[in-house]
Structures
1.
Amino acid sequence: MDEKILLALQDLGLRKSEARVYVALVARGASSASDIARDAKIPHPRVYDIMESLAAKGLVKIQTGRRPRYTATEPEVGFERLLNRFREKGEFLTNHLSKIYDTRMETPSIWMLKGRNNIIDEISQISCQAENELLLAIPVDVLGVLRKSLRAARRKGVTTSLVIYSGEKESQIDSEVARHADIRVREPPGSVVALADYNDCLLCSHKTLVRESSVDEEHAIVAGDPELLQILSYFFYHSLWCAAKPIVKEVSIEEYPRSFVHIWKAIEDAEILREKGYKVKASIKGKTVKDHTAIELEGLITQTTNINGRIFSITVKKSDGSEITVGGRGASVEEVEAANITLGPAKKT
C-alpha cells in the first residue's frame, strides 16, 4: 500500500487500520470481510467494526445479509461528504470557540511557532494584517510564496519596506515585486523579520526558511508586545535596512499619499520627495508629549532630523505659520509623539 495515500487518509481523520481497509476495498471492489482482512492485513474480527466506522463516514456501503459484503463509495463522492462534515464541524467550532476567544482576560505577548510552512504562513498573515506599514526581511527563496500577500498589502495602501537576502538569486526579484515594495538587497543574510505596524511581529533565523535547514531549526518567535516591536523596528533599520543595497526605482507621485508608523521610514520618504523638488505635506495623528492628549495636525515639512540613526524628528509648519516638532514612538523632547504619519507631495519648488 502506498504510504503517502495512507498518511493522507489519516490526515483526514481515519485511523491507520481504517485507511488500510479502505484502500484495500477500493482496490478489490465488492468484497467479504475475510477478503478485506487478508488484503489489509487486519485481524478478521476487527473488520466489522472498521466497516461500520467507515460507513458512518460515508466511505463504505454495506450489503446486509448472512454474509455481509462491502463496497467503497466512489472516492469523489465519499470524500466530498467527508469534507462537508469537516466544514460543518469547522463552522460550528469557529462560531462557538471564537466567542470564548474574544472574552479572554489576556493573551501572551510572546510565543513560539514551529515548522517552516507554519512560519511562512504566519509571515503571510502578518503581511495581510498590516494597515499602514510593513517591514519585511526574507530570503529570496520564499519571495514567490509571499508575492500575493505583498500585492494585497499594496492594494490596501500599505507601505512596505522589503529587505531580500538574495545570495546568487537576485534575478528572481522581478519588476512586479518592485511595484509593491521599497526593496533593498542584503548579502550576507541576517535575521528574518516581519513587522506589521506596531501590532504583530515575527523573528527567526535565516536558516529556518532555507530548504536545507533541519527540523530542529524550524522555529520562530511571534510577539505583539509594543516595546519589543519598537526595538525590532530599530533593529530592522540599523542592522538590516541600512546595511542593504537599494534597488533604485523612479518615484511615482501616483503612489501617494503613503502612511508610516516608523518615523525613520517617513523621514527617508520625505527626503526622497524633497530631493525631487517637491514640498512635502504631512498629516499626523498622535498625542502630545507633555500631557498625552490626542492630537491631529497637518502642514508642510520644513525640516527632518536624523542624528546618527538614533534621534529622529520632523518639523511641521501649520497653516497658521506656527511650527511644531514631531517624534516617533517614545518621543520625549519633541512636542508630539506620532502614531501615524501620512505624506504626500505638494507643488514643486
2.
Amino acid sequence: MSDPLVRVLANPGILGSLSARDWDLLARHARQSDLLGRIAELVFDHGLETSLPAGVRGHLDAERVLITAQRATVTREVGHLEKALAPLGVPVVLLKGAAYLMAGLPAAAGRHFSDIDILLPRDALPAAESALLLAGWVGTHHNDYDQHYYRVWMHELPPMQHMRRQTVLDVHHAILPLTARLRPDSRLLLAAAKPLPGSAVMHTLGPIDMVLHSMTHLLHNEEFSHGLRDLSDLDLLLRHFGKDDHFWTELPDRAAQLDLTRPLFYGLRYARALLETPVPEATLVRTQGFGPPKAPLPLMDALWLRVLRSTHPLADDAFGPAARFLLFLRAHWMRMPLPLLIRHLAHKCVTPKQSGERSNKTPDA
C-alpha cells in the first residue's frame, strides 16, 4: 500500500521536496481523507508556500478560506450554546473539534468541522433539551425506535439541528454507549473538566481525558472515513500535551481509572506506527499489559494499519474492504451485548432510513 498522506503527516519536512506529480497525488489523498486543510496549514507553518508547484497554491488557499469560515461558525455556535445553557448552572464540556478550536490547540489546525459535540451531566439532559429547543435546536430522529435507541441505550440525545442556521449539535452524557463493554465514568470526566478562559459555563476535558477520549472515539467508531484525520488529531494532542513529563506518568493511571486501558494501548501503538508519534519508553512499558492477548494482536495490527490510512482507493489493497468490515463488526460488538446487537441490526436492515436522518453511529466531529 502506498500512502503519501501518511508519509507527509509523519514527516512534514518532505513537503518542500515534492514534485508536481507528487502534489497531485497527495492532494487527491488529502481531499478524500478530509485532510487537505491540515496539509495546507503544514505548508504555511513550514514556510513552504513559495516552493509549491504552479496551481497547488490556489487549492491550498481555497481550503484555508473554507476552514476559516468553519472556525467562525463554530465559534459563533459556541456563543449561542453558552447563552442557551448558562441558566442550567452546570458545566458544558465541548468535545473533539470544537474543544480543540476553542482551547487553541494544534489539533484544530486545518481541521474541518461538521457538527458540535458537548458533554453534560445526565441528570441535566431534560432541562438542557428544553433550553435548546427554546433556542431553536430541534431533534432529527422522530420514530419511536430511534428515540428509544438514543435515550435508553446510547450516550447521547438524538442529534439536534438548528432550525435557522442548520448547524448540528450532539448532546452527550457519556463518551461511550450505556450498553458498551467499557464504562468510563462521566462524573470523573466532568469533575476534571477545565473552563475556557473568560467563561464560567463552557469547558473542555482535561488534557489526559481529552487524549483518552480521542483514542476511544477513534477505536470504537464503526465508520472509518475520518480514521486518519482522527489519528492525526491524536498525534497532535500527544505531541502538544506530551511536552509536560507529568502527562506521560499520569496517563496510564487515568486510563485505568476510566476503564480505557485498551484504547490507550491501541492509540499509542498506531500513532507511533503510522505517524511516528514520540512516546516515552517508560510509558510504553507501563501500558504493555493493557493490550490484548498475544494471539489476536497480529490480526488487530493487520486490520487497523489498513484502516487508519488515506481513504483514497489508491491507498487500499485487496484486503482493505475485509479489514473495514471486520472492524465494523468489532465496533458493534464493543457497543452492544449480542442479543441487543442482533435485535438492533435486524431492525435497521428492515426499516428504511427516514429522509433527513443521520445514521445511528458515533458522531464524527
